[in-house]
Amino acid sequence: LDRSSAASDVYKDRIAFAIASNGGLASVSVARGSGSAALDRAAVSVIRKAAPFPRPPAGARRQYSIKIKGQ
Prior knowledge:
The protein is α+β, with helices and mostly antiparallel strands and 71 residues long. It contains one helix and three strands; from the N terminus they run ββαβ. It has one helix at residues 37-50, and strands at residues 11-19, 25-32, 63-70. A hairpin with a 5-residue loop joins β1 (11-19) and β2. The termini are close together. The relative contact order is 0.35.
């Protein structure tokens, strides 16, 4: 993240991801960028590092969208 920005600058990302039936990460993408390429990359990396997820039960929701904030 660019530290030259003022400390009060808050960046918000919306990350979309899907979990495969075996618990693996099916997809991850930046649904709404923060304006900071570094935060966008870090947010996607967090989701990738969290995988694999527990195997979802049959019929369970497997697509998610989360908001990540950073400074």
